Amino acid sequence: MALKALMAVTGLFMVLFLILHVYGVLQAFGGREVYNAYATHLHQFGVPILHYNWFLWIIGVVLLIAVLGHIYAAAHLTVRDWRARTGAGRRYQTNKGRRGNQRSYASFTLRIGGVYLGLYVIFHLLNLTAGTIHPGGATPDPYQLLLNNFKVWWVVLIYTLGMIAVGFHLRHGVWSALTTLGAHTGLKARRRLNILAYILSFGIAIGFLLVPWAIVVGVIH
Amino acid sequence: MKITVRVWRQPNSQADGRMVSYEVDQVSEDMSFLEMLDVLNERLTHEGQDPIAFDSDCREGICGMCGVVINGEAHGPVQTTTCQLHMRSFKDGDEIDIEPWRAEGFPILKDLIVDRSAFDRIIQAGGYITAPTGAAPDAHAAPVPKNAADKAFDAATCIGCGACVAACPNGSAMLFTAAKITHLGLLPQGQPERDSRVLGMVAQHDEEGFGGCTNIGECAAVCPKEIPLETISRLNRDLLGALVRGDSN
Predict the structure, then answer these.
(1) The total number of structural domains that make up chain A
(2) Ranges for the 2Fe-2S ferredoxin-type domain (chain B) (predicted)?
């Protein structure tokens, strides 16, 4: 019974992380020194109460728990839902009315979009966090890594597609999570929740995309 | 007008079903959808064929018995019950696809008839309310705010037709369950058992094999009684509160 609440809480927690993350990424507009100083401070955050890097490790572990909880709940609920609608495939014989009355593209693609996001996150972690994949050339300088990375066209493409997927996932996800937690109290609340979902989805997706595209057009160099 | 209907024919719950085409002549646009099926059934009976089995009772949109998926939409193109849908909503020469509700919780009995006992068991799982019996209480002994009374009444108009389940991409009966939760949960008479009711009904809902709500809103878009989507969020609030407090019953 609480699976949906788990889905909602872990999802909203990840949205909070994304807001902090987009703030960090946008530091790139401040130039090499600002960006690198921000990156260094992330490692030192909380020192001396926390030891070096502990802050990032704590965030990493908590996020991993959230992601696993989100995937666990999604898998269970999806299996249940598919059984309830008598199979994942075609439900009614007719070819008419297949798109329903009011389901949106974002709600339609929530599940498959989540799978894409999972793959994207794995690529992103290998690419810019662990640095295993470095198409533009490896470097210890975080700012230079960013520049090298987004000189490669297919990396820009992957990040662009990833952020479009984030946008769609958050458009329905934020609304659905808050509704599941009981925030949809009437028509006014519905409008407010939808506006919030639009602001978060557009804000986060565009906020992240500004940096790679600013590198492509040469604003960040 | 003359139309063609493609109907799901399935002799019993075990047998396989398929879509069968029938032409229906001399359909008046003033006929209700069910009358059109009556005309077709009369002909089928005369020809010695098995008439199409479908549910209906009051035929005035208040009982919730009738309900089929017409052209992929629960209750068809107008947001009302199937008996209140009229043939003027269709055009001469149309081909109309008619299918039963399709959900794990609603096994097909025959043709267009599904077994909706699951809904009865969900209501049963909600339990009783401790309304005192005996002499009628004074009219204003239990004041109810106008807003609460209105919303409770809106929820209480649910006729349990099952269109929400048929339309939901997840086969969820949350709109139905939420309507039942809301109409008692908003009234003073429903307060003592509010927690045990939501826990019991949601547990039974899941037990019956219905899916979970992903807040898409297809249910509210086809509901003939226009139960608002926000009732589901109210159920979620009640459920989370009850889970946090723990079941006292």
Answers:
(1) 1
(2) 1-102
For residue B247, is pLDDT > 70? no
Residue B75 domain boundaries: 3-109
Q: What is the DSSP string of B87-119?
A: GGGS-TT-EEEEE---BTTB-EEETTEE--HHH
Structural domain tally of chain B? 2
Answer whether A1 sits within 8 Å of B206, measured CB to CB.
yes
Give me the CATH number covering residue B19. Answer: 3.10.20.30
DSSP 8-state assignment for residue B20: E
- Distance in angstroms (rounded) separating the CA atoms of residues A173 and B215: 9
Residue of chain B with shortest Cα separation from A105? B216
Is there a contact between A103 and B172 if contact means CB atoms under 8 Å apart? no
User: Which structural domain, as residue segments, surrounds residue A198?
Assistant: 3-88+104-217
Question: Would the CB atoms of A94 and B97 count as touching at under 8 Å?
Answer: yes
Q: How many distinct helices (H) and strands (E) make up chain B?
A: 8, 7
Map tokens 């975080």 to a residue: A142
Q: What pLDDT digit, counting tens, does each position of B37-64 carry?
A: 999 999 999 999 999 999 999 999 999 9
Per-residue pLDDT of chain A (221 residues; tens, 9 = 90+): 789 999 999 999 999 999 999 999 999 999 999 999 999 999 999 888 999 999 999 999 999 999 999 999 999 999 999 999 999 888 999 999 888 888 899 998 999 999 999 999 999 999 998 888 888 888 889 999 999 999 999 999 999 999 999 999 999 999 999 999 999 999 999 999 999 999 999 999 999 999 999 999 999 98
Instruction: Kindly identify which residue of chain A lies nearest to residue B227, measuring between CA atoms.
Output: A186
Dig out the tokens for A39 from the structure: 């990156």
Distance between CA atoms of B45 and B48, rounded to whole angstroms?
5
B73 forms beta bridges with B70
Q: Which of B73, B99, B214 sits opposite A101 (nearest CB)?
A: B73
What ipTM was assigned to the predicted interfaces of this complex? Answer: 0.90
Residues in chain B closer than 8 A to A77 (CB atoms): 211-212
Kindly state whether A216 is in contact with chain B, defined as any CB-CB distance less than 8 angstroms. Answer: no
**In degrees rounded to 5, what are phi and psi of residue B120?**
-60, -40
Which of these, B142, B68, B72, lies nearest to B112 by C-alpha position? B68
